[in-house]
Known about the structure:
Elements: E1 2-8, E2 16-22, E3 25-31, H1 39-49, E4 59-61, H2 67-80, E5 87-88, H3 96-117, H4 123-147, E6 154-155, E7 169-173, H5 176-189, H6 192-202, H7 206-223, H8 241-244, E8 248-253, E9 256-260, H9 266-270, H10 276-279, E10 285-287, H11 299-305, E11 309-312, H12 323-330, E12 337-340, E13 347-353, E14 358-362
Parallel strand pairs: 3-4, 4-5, 5-6, 9-10, 10-11, 11-12
Antiparallel strand pairs: 1-2, 1-13, 2-3, 7-8, 8-9, 13-14
Helix pairs in contact: 2-4, 3-4, 4-6
Amino acid sequence: MKAEINLINVEDGDAIILMLTDTNRKSLILIDGGFKKYYPKLKRRLQEVLPKFDNKIDLLVCTHYDNDHLGGVENLLDDYHAAIGEIWIHKIDHSMSKTAEVLREKLRFVNDRIIETETLENADTLKNILAIERYRDLLRVVEKIKTYGLEIKITEAKHGDIFKKFPEFTAVGPSAEFYNSNLPALKEEAILEDVKKDLESKMIDRTILFEVINNVLPQKILKQNPCDLLEKSSIKNGVSATNMVSIVTMLKLGTKKFLFTGDSGIESFEKHTADWKKSLKDLFFLVVPHHGSKNNTSQEMLNIFNPVHSFVSGQGNFNRPSLMIEQCMKSKVRLKTFEVTNRIPETWYLSINEKGVVQRILE
């Protein structure tokens, strides 16, 4: 079997194309759509490769309800809804109608609150307006899945689910128990708080952050093993339920395992995926969870994953990826490649094939 994986440079987001070909079958799988503003980059690559796959997207995986993963899916649905064969996505209430209702109710509440209590001169207002716009994007994705009649093509993918056309591609997380236990939190959290938190992290005083990353952290790492500095819990560090139940998928080609982690966290693997130490051991290819955020990857995870090739779909600066995670991974003997999509900003996409040949395609 031949495989090519493209990681589109959508900065601190995910948009990943998998192209699989075998003697009598072929499939194009898309994992997430990145931020809406970067959709033209994703579409440009799709226009190049779709004719080779009968102009079909056999499987669309929507890992979770974050704008940097699903924003571009709205445009994708407008352009390619007729080409989509199957969608893996969670439903906050096991129904797209209920999911849309939950999202819409939260949006109505926030809009009312802002009208009553905020003014345009207030800096928080701009943050809230930006957050609400992103939140509206997510709501439109859910509503367009319904509008285009795609709800019948949905699988609420969880551990053990298999893509029938290519059984080599499976969902390895979340477990059904972990996902169902987080449904109440997903409704109450309603994802808006997650969107706001993401915005807040991007609006931090970057001068201070730059000082920490470039001076304080390196000195700390020099004095200790960087692997010993990694976090032990995502939940204790405030990682949201939305991220923790990301759909995690794996492509297995012979003995080579390719893992796509979304924004999953430490407990997603260590506490809620029973066979992960065996099934995810010694990966060939790893997309580091949550764009290399320090809160989503533990030392135990990296010891188990132990990849040959590792990618971060991220900005390439301001702690995405975490310097500690990067240095820990680079200390591993098996690691040959550690790439960050936007470390060279002119990158259009990164490509890796089943043999491990890596290419960076520039704009």
